[in-house]
Every structure is written in C-alpha cells, then in structure tokens.
C-alpha cells in the first residue's frame, strides 16, 4: 500500500484544467482535422458530411472521451495498468494492450506524413511556389528514400524532445504555445480563403447540407473520421486522464475539446474547399475528389495561382506542422507512459527507446514509396497498411473493449461518480448512458465490418 501511494505521488500531472484541455485538444487537432477531414468532406457531400460528423461528435465522441478520461483519472494508470486495475484475466490484458499498442504503431507512419509537411514548408520558405505546384514534385519527393527519411527523422526528433522534457515542462508548455498560434493561423487562412472571388460556392458546399448527397457511406466515413480526429481508442485520453487532477471537470473539459476539435475541422474545410472553388474554375469538381492528395498536390497548385501564394503556403503548412506535432506528441506520450508504468523505466530511458522504435518502424513507411516500393502487405504499402490496421481494425476493437469495461465491469454509476466528483456537472448524463450501453458498441461494429469489407473489395468507401 505504501508503495502504491508513493507511485501515485510521483506521477506527473497537468498544472490544471487549461493544461489538460490544450493538451487533449492538441491530441485531437492534427492531420485528421486539417488533412483528412477536408478531403472526406469534399468527397462525401460537404455540408451533409459535416452535419453527420457534428451529431456523432456530440454523442458517440462525447461518450468515448468521457469514458476514457474517467478511466484514466480513477486509476491513475496508462491503458494497460488501467485495465489491469479492474482485473488480471486475459480479457483485461487484451483490452489494455490493444489500447496501448495503437499509438505505438500510429506514431511511426504519422511522423512520415509530418515529415512531408516539413518538406513542403521548407520549399515555400526557400524557393517560392513553382516547384510544389508541379505534378511530379510530390511523387519524386516520396519516392526519394533519402529525402523522405531525413524529413521523417527531423519530425520524430522534434516530437521526442518535447516528450523528454516531461508533462508540464514539455507537453503542456508546447501545447500552450502552439495551440493559440494554430487557432490564429487557421482563422487568418480561413478568412483569406472564403473572401476570394468565387469562393462562396465552396462555402455553401461546405456548410449547407444537401440531403440528396446523403448515403450510408457518409455515416461510415464520418464515424471513421471521428475516431481519427478526436483521438478515441488510442490510449491517449486514458493517459491524459491519468494526469488530470480531481478539481478539473471531466465534462467541461470534454465539451471544450469537442468545440476546439470541431471548430478547427470546420475551419480546415473552409480553408481548402472554398479555395478549390475560387482558384480551380471548371476543374473544381475534379479537384474536390482528389482524396488524400488534396493537401499535397491540389493545394500547392492553388497557392501558385494566388498573388500572395507563397505567404499563404508558408502559413498553411506551418499550421499543418503545428497540428501534426501536437498530435504526434500525444501519441508518443501514451507509448512512453506505458513503458514507464509497465516496465518501470524512467522517462528518459522510455523516451529514448520509444524514439529508436519509432524511427526503426517508421523508416518502413518513409521508404515504402521508394526503395521498398516493391514490398507490400495485402497489396498495401507500409504506410497504408499501418494506417488500415490501426484505424480500421484495432481502434474499433479497442473502443469495443472500453465499452465492455464500462458497462460490464466498472458500471456507468462508477463513471458518473468520477465525473461528478467535487460537485462537477454531468449534464448529458442521459446521452452518455444510452450511447455507452446501446449505440456505441453498434457503431463500433459497423466501422470494423465496413472497413474490413472495403479492403476485401465487398464494398467501396
């Protein structure tokens, strides 16, 4: 008992609610918002996709954030320890480890994309807009093993240095600096984009729901995006919850993260989609369907057609870089926290070894379009495979494990006690009860089945 108390005393904490909110928002606001959300919104109907996403974020997303944060704070453990706190059977171990392994597998390929962002920012800083606007630039860069690897390593080192500095001195301090700058940059670019001649059609496409464009795939895609965007079932929120003090309100913090995350996602859509309409002319429809290449191929062409495209390009990729780093930090912290808790390593040792692992595994993805292009898994390059296995398979299973843990073991009553400790509010209690017991497990099963069926070729997403 004395040993347990000593361990809890030594555990790092956020300085207060603001520290938790900014760190959790930093985890949520990443490439999922600024890279993934706009191209999915463009592909699945704009306003109708946004409406479905907001409804899911306020119900499903809210429920999962509350659950994971409460589990983390009541146990003061990372995912593996949190599950073992309630039992030591194989089922508990599986639930804990799958939540812990996900960020360890995501960070390496996520850092590769972060490296791409660094390269684009560098190009805008030193050479203007012409190079990046060509069709060949992106392909030649990612197929050049050395260039892609160097940018990837730079991004990893930036992430690892912040983790090495600790919770308050590293994660919290960087979040307090980067997140306000990120919001300002997003606002500036959004205002510029929506005020261009012809951009109003893009604003309408993004904000006004067209129910004729609604399909079941709109719902499935919005659900998948919500996992990616809100950092659900990645172990992050359990880890950050374990650093959260009892005098901070879980529900208020959750609401602020929801607002932050959804607001940035909407602004990202308004940065990109109206710009496509304004600067693409008759090719707007084709460019909207560019998918993942929208940010790295289509947007540079649009920046090149602007009068101040170089400045906007610098601001845009600086914004994307800040968003990518804050999310990468959160993912890496979850992995490091697991190593500290389960292997009893100190932060320095855990951070260094996690960094080595990230570089080793991430190099497969960094080189996957170049020297390792002929090596595939299920006909997928390494980056695509790691993205599929984590986001489409492991995360739904991890979310299901959390739903089962809450409803069958902890009970919603105990979660309620944790949320309402010190008199804090739980105003959407009914929504939480209904979602965690009935709809969340159903939605999670839908995501898993749809994603696997898509890869096997039974459906097209």
Quick overview:
By secondary structure, the chain is mainly α. The chain contains 20 helices and no strands. The protein is 77% helix and 0% strand.
Descriptive overview:
The protein is mainly α and 461 residues long. It is built from 20 helices and no strands. It is globular, with a radius of gyration of 21 Å. The protein starts with a helix and ends in a 6-residue tail after the last helix.
Spell out the blueprint of helices and strands:
Elements: H1 2-10, H2 17-28, H3 31-43, H4 47-75, H5 79-84, H6 90-127, H7 135-142, H8 145-165, H9 167-194, H10 200-207, H11 216-230, H12 236-242, H13 250-280, H14 284-288, H15 298-305, H16 309-343, H17 347-366, H18 382-410, H19 412-419, H20 429-455
Helix pairs in contact: 2-9, 2-12, 2-13, 2-16, 3-11, 3-13, 4-10, 4-11, 4-12, 4-13, 4-20, 6-8, 6-16, 6-17, 6-18, 8-9, 8-16, 8-17, 9-13, 9-16, 10-13, 11-20, 12-16, 13-15, 15-16, 16-17, 17-18, 18-20
Key traits:
461 residues; mainly alpha; single chain; disordered N terminus
The number of helices is 20
Structural class: mainly alpha
Rg is: 21 Å
Overall helicity: over 70%
Q: DSSP strand (E) fraction? A: under 5%
Q: Whole-number average pLDDT?
A: 85
- First-residue to last-residue Cα separation: 52 Å
Shape, principal axes of CA atoms:
globular
- How many β-strands, per DSSP? 0
* Sheet with the most strands, sense and barrel status: none
Q: Which blocks of ≥5 consecutive residues have pLDDT under 50?
A: 1-9
Along the chain, the helix and strand elements come as: HHHHHHHHHHHHHHHHHHHH
């Amino acid at each position: 008992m004395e040993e347990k108390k000593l361990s809890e005393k030594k555990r790092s904490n956020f300085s207060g609610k603001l520290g938790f909110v900014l760190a959790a928002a930093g985890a949520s606001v990443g490439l999922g918002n600024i890279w993934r959300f706009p191209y999915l919104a463009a592909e699945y109907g704009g306003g109708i996709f946004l409406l479905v996403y907001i409804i899911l974020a306020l119900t499903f997303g809210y429920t999962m954030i509350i659950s994971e944060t409460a589990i983390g704070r009541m146990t003061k453990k990372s995912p593996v320890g949190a599950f073992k706190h309630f039992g030591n059977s194989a089922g508990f171990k599986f639930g804990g480890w799958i939540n812990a392994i996900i960020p360890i597998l995501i960070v390496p390929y996520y850092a590769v994309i972060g490296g791409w962002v660094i390269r684009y920012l560098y190009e805008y800083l030193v050479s203007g807009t012409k190079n990046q606007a060509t069709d060949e630039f992106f392909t030649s860069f990612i197929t050049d093993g050395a260039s892609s690897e160097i940018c990837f390593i730079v991004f990893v080192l930036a992430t690892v240095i912040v983790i090495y500095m600790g919770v308050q001195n590293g994660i919290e301090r960087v979040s307090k600096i980067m997140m306000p700058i990120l919001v300002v940059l997003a606002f500036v670019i959004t205002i510029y984009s929506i005020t261009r001649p012809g951009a109003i059609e893009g604003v309408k496409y993004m904000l006004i729901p067209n129910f004729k464009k609604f399909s079941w795939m709109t719902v499935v895609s919005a659900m998948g995006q919500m996992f990616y965007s809100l950092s659900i079932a990645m172990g992050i929120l359990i880890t950050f919850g374990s650093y959260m003090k009892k005098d901070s309100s879980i529900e208020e913090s959750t609401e602020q993260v929801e607002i932050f995350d959804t607001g940035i996602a909407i602004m990202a859509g308004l940065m990109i989609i109206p710009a496509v309409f304004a600067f693409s002319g008759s090719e707007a429809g084709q460019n909207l369907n560019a998918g993942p290449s929208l940010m790295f191929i289509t947007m540079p062409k649009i920046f090149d057609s602007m009068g101040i495209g170089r400045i906007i390009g610098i601001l845009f990729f600086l914004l994307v870089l800040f968003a990518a780093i804050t999310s990468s930090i959160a993912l890496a912290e979850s992995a490091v926290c697991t190593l500290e808790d389960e292997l009893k390593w100190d932060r320095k040792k855990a951070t260094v070894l996690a960094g080595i692992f990230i570089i080793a595994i991430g190099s497969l993805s960094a080189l996957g379009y170049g020297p390792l292009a002929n090596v595939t898994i299920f006909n997928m390059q390494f980056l695509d495979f790691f993205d599929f296995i984590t986001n489409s398979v492991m995360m739904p299973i991890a979310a299901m494990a959390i739903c089962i843990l809450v409803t069958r073991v902890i009970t919603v009553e105990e979660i309620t006690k944790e949320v309402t400790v010190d008199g804090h509010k739980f105003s959407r209690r009914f929504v939480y009860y209904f979602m965690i017991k009935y709809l969340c497990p159903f939605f999670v099963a839908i995501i898993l089945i749809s994603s696997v069926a898509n890869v096997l070729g039974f459906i097209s997403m």
